[in-house]
Write a structure and sequence with these properties.
Structural class of chain A: alpha/beta
Largest interface: A-B, 34 and 35 residues
Number of helices of chain A: 14
Helix content of chain A: 25-40%
CATH superfamily of the largest domain in chain A: Zn peptidases
Bound molecules: zinc ion
CATH architecture of the largest domain in chain A: 3-Layer(aba) Sandwich
Strand content of chain A: 15-25%
Oligomer: homodimer
Number of domains of chain A: 2
Largest sheet of chain A: 11 strands, mixed
Order of helices and strands of chain A: HHHHEEEEHHEHEEHEEHEHEEHEHEHH
Chain lengths: 462, 462
């Protein structure tokens, strides 16, 4: 094939040795944890478009400068502004009592004074899809998708579909509102999980919210008694025009090929219920700490290490899409990239979407990170993570560095996403993996195959 | 001594055999769990004096009748009414962000629009007691007592003192408000713990509230940065006159000595944040199920089994104190008593305050419940539990049936006190212990020493 004629990409032995040393230094280093501790303490929750989002951008610019990055800059990202002011719910009949719920992103508000309607319940999104629209018209649709803990969090596919597609379908069927059992895995916590819906136009939106798991159980027990169940929802939330946010970028400039970049990052915005520690302060911290450790080496790497703190991932990859639009024409300059956005658990697997001639270099990276618990699976693609999936879709060679997400959906998108959920040692392991891979990619002889339209059919979907 | 001349109290062999059978039946019976499931589902939270409290009384009267108790009646209990409408808090400076907190019982509200003041922090209640009042005047006092999990929950002594006495002291010293780190043990849950303060007169009360443990950690991290920290509290809570509630009583009437009673129970009221499953729906359920199982025996017991669902234990043993005032003159008719109010974990220890001549009968009870995990400690007093401690103080012979409270303070007085925290098997073990002891006490030849003023110096303090 044409590929077979290309020269194989390799990592020089000296770079492998330096990456090994870097890895061990990172495993004992606290830079990542200090970053996420300071971000979540000094800024707190960072809902996209909120006053705190603006402070988060300023904080990150200042922090990247204080960390000594060679270049620190921002790039604009425009998106619809959505606000949450207050949210209450109660069973009105047959057994009056409050319920713990949270509105979903892009939900409409209820009329002032609240919305009262009967509930129609479905066990699954599939069952709801099969419903006769006449049975849900004017009602509050409730869908009870159950998720359980898994290392790779695969139940979230079903949970997030219930959250994103369910409300859109309910609106199309004429429902008054939509409720789901939270897309989460802690059955004992009264902390409902928020997250975005599939509404794209304020005109199409209806009130949509999630019950905590114990509240979902409670509603299901009440429904089981067989009497009509009426709920009142009072959601003061909604769209409010357009906002201009920022991707924040910090670089360690390459010594030999400064225009060729290894792209790493996380998203700076968070939901407002917790402080966005595991989602995704940790991701930004991992990438920033990895770049800082590379910067502290005796000399700059050959290529540039670019840390991107993306704007508004939560409501639809707004930062990632804006970034990919702006940089698609430069895709071949992106040596390799991946984003951290699955919490702060240890990385246990690496997969890659690279050209065949770069598989050897990926194996070299794999050997350096294998001793700290990362297995290389050569048979799966690498998707680049949440926002950087958009650059991968444009043709950027990408890794997936899969974290242990066993408890991720206990805390994800709810009030319990706070600093105490992060194990500093596990976070340091992430930094070590990012530092080692980024440095080796920056020092490689040859590229990983980034080109416009490359990898379009690799099957990656993260 | 005078006691030595009395005849020893004993349990007839036939009663021991019947109690053993009753114990085994109870271990496999679901009546207790069904009771607490229905109470917490059909009534929900039961804040003393609320509309739900009234529904809870009606529900319990109806339930006791449906269970077939021979007598069901109520007794009035008057107490100050305290209401919670809404509660919000935020760090204003240096790092603006919301904090999860809950107002404490008998807290004053803040002025409309909220109260903003600087924080003065103390590690312990002792440190706060030693403070110069001038340093806290006009400030928000914050006390950071730390509790950890224990089987017997002894840290709650320190935690509840910080919650009850701290606010009173803060008010006396001229503080603007009082905050504590929640008297709870789950470091990862954003669910603050409420509970009563020591305020007795609305005129003396100041705003008093608890931060969830992660929020307390957050405030402490912010304080550690060394800048002045300003908080805003907005608590719409407060006293609102007097309320007349009800103790609800159900009886299985004794066949031979109907006026002599074995008293068991729990408290019907709960805090409003959860549904009052472990505190104390479980206690009422355990007592009611035990009595129901005794009622279902071939014939009524010799003495009466009285189940008391107390009113407003939470804000100061109001139901228990009213009960003791009303029944003190009959104390010698109370054969033996104890209340369940420490969750739904298994009972692991029995202690007793009885006359010396009844120790043998207590040992007979101990032998029946030992096979299901209960150790008898003859060297400690039995205090009768929360509300029934008041009858014990009047001279009622009493047991303490100590539950495993390892996780009790994870959920106690917070939004996570919901049905899912109850293990049906552990609840059934409690019912088995209550049924076996109550039946044996009802069948005893002789009494356990109840008399006006007895046991005044037994050292019991629960
Ligand atoms: Zn994320
Ligand atoms: Zn997220
Ligand atoms: Zn209690
Ligand atoms: Zn309590």
């Amino acid at each position: 094939s044409a590929h077979a004629a290309d020269k194989a990409t390799t990592i020089p032995a000296k770079a492998v040795a330096a990456a090994t040393e870097l890895r061990d230094k990172a495993m004992a280093d606290n830079t990542g944890y200090e970053f996420v501790s300071a971000l979540t303490t000094e800024v707190g929750p960072r809902l996209a478009g909120s006053e705190a989002d603006k402070r988060g951008v300023e904080w990150t610019v200042a922090k990247f400068k204080a960390m000594g990055f060679d270049k620190v800059y921002t790039e604009k990202v425009s998106y619809p502004l959505w606000e949450r002011h207050s949210e209450h719910a109660a069973i009105v009949a047959p057994f009056p009592q409050p319920l713990a719920l949270t509105a979903l992103g892009y939900s409409a508000g209820t009329p002032a004074g609240g919305l009262t309607a009967e509930v129609v319940a479905f066990d699954t999104l599939e069952a709801f899809k099969a419903a006769d629209p006449a049975t849900v018209k004017g009602k509050i649709v409730y869908v009870s998708t159950h998720m359980t803990q898994q290392k790779d969090g695969h139940d979230y596919g079903m949970g997030s579909a219930t959250r994103t597609r369910g409300p859109v379908l309910a609106a199309q069927m004429g429902a008054a509102a939509y409720l789901l059992r939270s897309a989460g895995t802690d059955p004992h916590s009264r902390t409902p999980h928020t997250g975005v819906t599939g509404f794209t136009d304020p005109k199409d939106a209806i009130p949509a919210a999630a019950l905590s798991l114990p509240d979902a159980d409670q509603l299901e027990r009440v429904l089981k008694e067989g009497k009509p169940v009426t709920l009142k929802l009072d959601l003061d939330v909604g769209f409010k025009g357009t906002y201009e946010g920022m991707n924040v970028i910090g670089e360690v400039t390459g010594r030999k090929k400064p225009k060729e970049v290894v792209a790493i990052g996380g998203h700076l915005d968070s939901w407002d219920l917790g402080t966005g520690a595991i989602d995704d302060g940790a991701g930004v911290a991992i990438a920033a700490a990895a770049a800082k450790l590379i910067k502290d080496m005796p000399q700059r790497p050959d290529r540039t290490i670019r840390v991107i703190a993306f704007a508004n991932e939560e409501m639809g990859l707004w930062g990632g899409r804006a970034y990919a639009e702006a940089h698609a024409k430069d895709v071949s300059n992106f040596q390799l990239g991946t984003e951290s956005d699955f919490g702060a658990g240890r990385i246990w697997r690496m997969t890659a979407s690279v050209k065949p001639e770069a598989r050897g270099a990926i194996e070299q990276i794999a050997k350096v990170i294998e001793p700290i618990g990362v297995a290389y699976d050569p048979n799966k693609p690498g998707g680049g993570g949440s926002d950087l999936s958009q650059m991968h879709a444009k043709g950027m060679a990408a890794l997936s560095l899969t974290q242990d997400g066993t408890d991720y959906f206990d805390y994800h998108h709810n009030a319990n996403d706070t600093l105490d959920k992060i194990d500093p040692k596990a976070l340091a392991q992430n930094v070590a993996v990012y530092a080692a891979f980024a440095y080796m990619a920056a020092q490689a002889d040859g590229n990983f195959g980034s080109a416009a339209g490359a990898f379009a059919k690799d099957g990656a979907h993260d």
